[in-house]
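Q: Focus on the shape:
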Amino acid sequence: MNTIIIYATKHGTTEKCAYMLSKKLNGRVDLHNIKSGKDPILDRYDKVIIGGSIYIGNIQKQIKKFCFKRLKELKRKKVGLFICGMQQGTIMEAEFVAAFPPELLANSIAKESFGGEFIFKKMNPIERLIVTKTLKVYKDTSNISEESINRFAQIINNSQ
């Protein structure tokens, strides 16, 4: 079975998580950064995984646009959805619901938050200011969950 992981990343965390996930999946796995400007050809894939990072409560517009534009096609595939972000609990759940079309959420076989990172050297001055003043985080922080990535991979691998 062929799988594609379609993602958007701002500072590289989502790309890192997509790569980690790709190494845990069975069969052929292709990675596609949607920000490359090219729409992937989904006919080649049995499984489609879509992920992006959450900034100020929203996923990248390229991910949202792709999901809505290709919704009919995606509904005929086995789809997994993931987000990367620093929020947890009900806030993370609300961000997840806001990130993807309801029909796609309802039809997906796997949904997971992989956690996120604050890497200060990758942030612009405004982002650093927001993180330090509102979240009281002053140094590089990572809460990427390999357990979540493993759980997601297992669901995808077990789907036929």
User: Anything to note?
Assistant: The longest strand covers residues 47-55. The chain is about 40% helix and 25% strand. The first helix runs from residue 13 to 22. The chain has one domain: 2-117+143-158.
